Amino acid sequence: MAQMEVGTDTNTAEGDVQSQLQEAYLKSLEQLEEGQMVEGHVIQVTPEQVFVDVGYKSEGKIPLSEFGETPKIGDIVSVVLVTKESKHGDVIVSKQKADVKLFWKNLRLAFQDHTPTEGIIEKQVKGGYEVNLGAGVKAFLPISQSDAQKVDKPEKFLGLKSSMYVERLYSDGKVNIVVNRRKWLEEEIARKQADFFENNPIGAEVTGVVKSFTSFGAFIDLGGFDGLLHINDMSWGHVTRPKDFVRKGQEITVKVIRIDPVEKRINLSLKHFTDDPWVHFEEKYSVNDVVKGTVTKLTDFGAFIELEEGIEGLAHISEFSWIKKIQKPQEVLNIGDEVDCMVLGYDLQAGRVSLGLKQVSSNPWVTIAEKYPVGARLTRKIIKLTNAGAFVELEEGIDGFLHADDISWTKKVKHPGSELAVGEEIEVIVTKLDAESRNIRLGIKQLSEDPWASFASAYHPGSPVEGEVSSVTDFGIFVRVPGGIEGLIHKSNLPENRDESPEDALKKYKEGDKIKAVVLELSPDRQKAAFSIKDYQKKVQRDEISHYMAEEESDGSTFTLGDALKSRRNSEKPETPAPAAADKTATASEKPETPAASDKAAETPAETAPGKTVETPATVSDKPETPAADDKNEPGKSADETASDKGAADETAPDETDDVTPGGD
């Protein structure tokens, strides 16, 4: 009986516990409200539905399409209780509504706390992108806020999943979400850069991806921020194009060689994985060594020649040739040419070496005086004409200069092209040689004797000369005389008598006329000569007087200067019968000059200057001049008057004779 009582008590206790649990369960169910978000456990997954236990008397069924990824049994999911019990007695729950509620809760927190949220950039719209934040919520991302750098290809961000900040939720009481990816990127880059500078000292090896190229190198992406791989740090040797060493998108390992945390700059290097070749330069090269190299670059001032990888020297354009004047390196070199050169000097600290090309061959100017001594006659070709003269090639690379003044003794050459032509072979003579200044002067006229010197030795001021009019100018005529020499007869020295004006006398002459004159002035060193027809006529008159006087003396008769002039005047009048004295004079003039008269006439020009009266015997010069002589004939003038005439002639053209060059130039 006692036992039965005990068992009865036990059963009663168990019933009480169960009853309490049921009451607690029912009480919890009563606390659930429709629309409330609760957590459930996945207890079954089918191809179409997911069964979730939310702690109610039946499980809730959720379409599989509401899950982004297929859940696993035991996963905890948040759902919204739509209906506690349908007409069929089922619990209806919705994960989609729970996601929306949860999304908005998190979105508000992200906006308030300035924390990033994730989204997928789905499509381009005007001024930016449409971003899917999840739960069917869309946001606008301005293109200016889509990246930390300028966006050159907007389409490259489509489909990108990224974090971003919520800048705005509502506008004018409506949902209008705007997000900012750029701000989040900049903060991430700053964080990564700070971490890089803290953990990567100079010399550290880092890995990055080749992002872009410039003319001076390549930018390497080190994880959202860039480092520069300069073209000079790609190799110890010569680098022409960065693309020859790295390619875009390539992952490479580089060394950190310079960092600047303040300016956020990082310099990287590939070449520092090997030793600097300049460290071993002196072990291989010395000054005056002849070495081989490859032309890597040409500039206006020379050529860069690589001796080995990392050792590059400069050959200045002045060191290209002993004999040629090189204007541009391209005239003798091309990139890629292999050449012999000499080491002229080097600077290890600066990493520079000076090279020479001409030093590997002998200098021809050292022996030039032996090959082309002054006075040597050569036949060579003209290679160039200038306003000043002509360049004549003596041998390859060595030219001589023929000045225009050295082409002719007598002709004034204005431009060498009027006398010479490029490609023409001419005979020249070496007139001057200066090996130190590399100057060789040539001449053509020096091949023959200077006609001015010959003319000056044969003719003196006052000497008669015959010539031909070569040109007529406003101030006189130029006359070509023996030897090809040209001289000027100023118009003041043209009149043959006192009644003729210089202008009228000038009109009488034309080119080709033969004339007789006397030498008025002669300057062989200046190659200038002046002649006079007026003084020639005076000389003729003086010679005639001397002739008559010589005749009278030989006959023993008394004959005066007045008689001679009167006789000459009468002989010029054909209508009047000539008197006996005139006949005698005429007869005497027809007779050949006696030796004495001839000698005296020849001596007269040398002894008297042009324009001066010839000294006559005492009987003539002491006798007063007759009025007739003064009025009619030039020879009747006194010595003072003749000198006065000469002075007047000189005053008429004091400088024009000297300033005008032969040929009317």
Structural descriptors:
elongated, 15 helices, 665 residues, disordered N terminus, disordered C terminus, alpha+beta, five-stranded antiparallel beta sheet
Description:
This protein has 665 residues and is an alpha+beta fold. The chain contains 15 helices and 30 strands. The strands form six sheets. A five-stranded antiparallel β-sheet has the order 3-2-1-4-5. A five-stranded antiparallel β-sheet has the order 8-7-6-9-10. Strand 2 and strand 3 (60-63) form a beta hairpin. Helix 8 runs antiparallel to helix 11 and helix 9 crosses helix 10 (580-590). The longest helix is centred in the first third of the chain and has 30 residues, at 2-31. The radius of gyration is 60 Å and the shape is elongated. It starts with a helix and ends in a 6-residue tail after the last helix. Residues 1-8, 24-29 and 572-665 have low confidence and may be disordered.
- Please outline the major beta sheet: 5 strands, antiparallel
Structural class: alpha+beta
Low-confidence stretches: 1-8, 24-29, 572-665
Number of helices: 15
Number of strands: 30
Can you list the strand order of the major beta sheet? 3-2-1-4-5
Determine the N-to-C terminus distance: 169 Å
What is the share of helical residues?
A: 25-40%
- If you compute it from the alpha carbons, what radius of gyration comes out, rounded to the nearest whole angstrom? 60 Å
- How much of the sequence lies in strands comes to 25-35%
What is the mean pLDDT? Answer: 77
Shape summary: elongated
